[in-house]
TrEMBL record:
Protein name: Branched-chain amino acid ABC transporter, permease
Membrane-topology descriptor: Multi-pass membrane protein
Organism: Deferribacter desulfuricans (strain DSM 14783 / JCM 11476 / NBRC 101012 / SSM1)
GO process terms (BP): amino acid transport
InterPro entries: ABC_transp_permease, BCAA_transport_permease
Keywords carried by this UniProt record: Amino-acid transport, Cell membrane, Membrane, Transmembrane, Transmembrane helix, Transport
GO function term, MF aspect, one: transmembrane transporter activity
CDD domains (UniProt xref): TM_PBP1_LivH_like (cd06582)
Transmembrane segments: 6-26, 33-53, 59-80, 92-117, 137-157, 191-212, 224-248, 260-277
Pfam families, A to Z: BPD_transp_2 (PF02653)
Family listed: Belongs to the binding-protein-dependent transport system permease family. LivHM subfamily.
């Protein structure tokens, strides 16, 4: 039963990683930018979720508005930060993104305080007993939210005309543009959807921990970077698998290697081992 419990904990953690990392890999796939400030959007989603929920007492309303506002801010970041740098070397955008992320953390600290905020009436805190397994409702809801949102993204990109145009722009932007696809609109959509997913991840982590802090995006920022490298840069399917795989590895590692390494060290030890064997990541192609 311990094995199943660890798998479930890995899936829960992997669901959160997936919500964050998919948006990151979407941006990298389209613009070849390592969007570190994506983790700042994750934190903003968590703050909006708890503040709106405490004001409205409606989880659906706070969740929806949080995702939408974070999506808009993601588009604004593209327009005002990355768009003027598209012709510059990639490290320029990377440095700007790191600076933006640090600035966002400081703004959150000044606006919301350094001690963090919590839900007045945290939702989904009851425990569901399944034989000898004990799961919080919030953990189950987190997995369901990730499954629904990523499934919706998959349907959008494979079954709709707009989504197919989007995929074409990611793989062959010049050819897509020659067929009349508005690349700029695709970029807006890319940042909007990717940022919304990060916002959703932030709301769910806020509910799971019942605590939102200015620095809560720190660990996800480098974990998500590790995941998109592990999955193969720009590979959405690889990123999803890597997210779940890393969550499961961490879950087992904390039990069997916890006396030697902490959770984050286990994750990066796993990443280093994989990259020593496959430098292009698990699902990346050799360049």
């Amino acid at each position: 039963m311990l094995f199943i419990d660890l798998i479930l904990q890995g899936l829960i953690q992997g669901s959160i990683y997936a919500l964050i990392a998919v948006g990151l890999t979407l941006v990298y796939g389209l613009l070849r930018i390592l969007h570190v400030a994506h983790a700042g959007l994750f934190t903003l989603g968590a703050y909006l979720g708890v503040l709106l929920m405490n004001q409205t007492n409606s989880l659906i309303l706070s969740f929806t508005i949080s995702m939408f506002l974070v999506g808009l801010l993601g588009v604004a970041i593209y327009i005002f930060c990355y768009k003027p740098m598209l012709e510059k070397p990639p490290y320029v955008a990377l440095i700007a993104s790191i600076g933006l992320f640090i600035s966002m953390e400081e703004i959150y600290r000044m606006v919301f305080g350094a001690m963090g905020v919590s839900y007045k009436n945290p939702p989904f805190q009851d425990v569901i007993n399944l034989s000898s397994l004990h799961l919080k409702s919030a953990e189950i809801v987190t997995m369901l939210v990730a499954l629904v949102l990523i499934s919706a993204l998959s349907i959008f990109t494979t079954k709709t005309r707009v989504g197919i145009s989007w995929r074409a722009t990611v793989t062959q932007p010049q050819i897509a543009e020659s067929f009349g696809i508005n690349v700029e609109k695709v970029r807006y959509g890319n940042f909007f959807i990717g940022s919304m997913l990060a916002g959703a991840g932030g709301v769910m982590v806020g509910i799971l921990n019942n605590l939102v802090e200015p620095t809560m995006g720190g660990v996800p920022s480098y974990k998500a970077l590790a995941i998109i490298v592990l999955g193969g840069l720009g590979n959405v399917k690889g990123t999803l698998i890597a997210s779940v795989l890393l969550g499961v590895v961490e879950s087992f590692g904390t039990i069997y290697l916890g006396s030697l390494l902490d959770r984050d060290a286990i994750a990066f030890a796993f990443l280093i081992i994989v990259l020593m064997i496959k430098p292009q990541g698990l699902f990346g192609s050799k360049r």
